[in-house]
Amino acid sequence: MAINDINGAETSAGRRRDLRRGKLGALMSSDQFCDRDNEFSIHSRPRSSYVSYLSPSSDNSTIYFSMKRNSVDSSSPSVEMSPWSQPSPYVKSPWTQYQFAGEEEKNEADARKLGLLGSLSREDGHIYSLAASGDLLYTGSESKNVRVWKDLQDFSGFKSGSGLVKAIVVHDDRIFTGHQDGKIRVWRSSVDRRSTHKRVGNLPTTRDLFRKSINPRNYVEVRRNRTVPWVKHYDAVSCMSVDSDLGLLYSGSWDRTFKVWRISDSKCLESVHAHDDAINSVAMGFCGLLFTGSADGTVKAWRRELVGKYTKHVLVETLLKEEQAVTSMAVNHAAGAVYAASSDGLVRFWERGKHFMLFSGVLRGHKMAVLCLAAAGKLVLSGSADSSICVWRRDVGGVHTCMAVLKGHGGPVKCLAVKKDTAAAEEDEAKLWIVYSGSLDKSVKVWRVTEDAHSS
User: Fold this and answer.
1) For 2-7+25-455, CATH number?
2) Which of 64, 103, 325, 449 is the most exposed place for a label (fewest CB within 10 A)?
């Protein structure tokens, strides 16, 4: 495989330390890294509230080297085949220092096109969630603030009295935020002033919660001697996903349930006790499938079907059952593939079969837990507790190639968001994407990546 090591920070021998991974319970939410800033900030740099751009003369240079790798079997969870644990045979190659005649202009063009574009930083604490919509970027942090960015500049923001922002999704003119205290807030931007956002409701609505609270049959036991109405999450809302075709919002929680909301009237249609431990990811798939990943080490596929007089989600199959926590999921709708990241540093993926999902391989590129995933076009991106981001390209036959490794964060990469680079697409035939990465180093970095193998 061909790997581009795009460095946004200096490397150090200290980064190669063998850090022990935590057990299932310790990694189920990935929030244990909040108290380990000193451990993960070896390469952190002074941060500011303005956008810093990289110039060709910057120390943040781009280093190229090559290595070939295809999908491998997942029978062993070890990561011995990771290129990070092997010395590259190309380090001493003269081609890493000298260029052929006529190649200098091409490499300069690639340097302008790919890599780190800038960093966004405010004193809002750790970044837990991201959502890109049009020319706006929404970032959620532990400060309860939702910051809005436009053109790499601080555009606006809004704050709730709820807990830290664990998840953000955008649907049409509404922004949904999931919080640590189990609440889901609904916001709407002003039509005449996009910089103004107003909270327009909660999920569940106050009226719906009151009506369900009257009837004792609407209560479910969540802990010993404690019951709550089934329409309400009683623990952190860790993830959300939208089914745009049906107008449904899915929310997953550490209370082990996922709930189904009708966006048009904010009504909770269903609550499903899906796992034996916290749900860390919920992803709307293809063919009417919904995928959920949990700290109990399982990945499950669900389908919405008519059961009697009611429409309910039924379990179709369990795709994975391991001891390691599942931390994040992503779906490639065009290819019919679903990816699941785990705390063991692996990314497993399945492809759509005739009747069932078929296990197709493992992506090995990280030394520590993979905390977030994102899929766009032919690309799959994985962010890890090792502070790096791997950019994978899916080729014909389900073979994946690591196109680049993005480095620059001084802490674990907690969330990713991707959008098409429409401005560059008008001038270049290559399929370019803008990647936003949020980290526990309290910053968001902006990258440009490509699907074109010849550009890397």
Assistant:
1) 2.130.10.10
2) 103
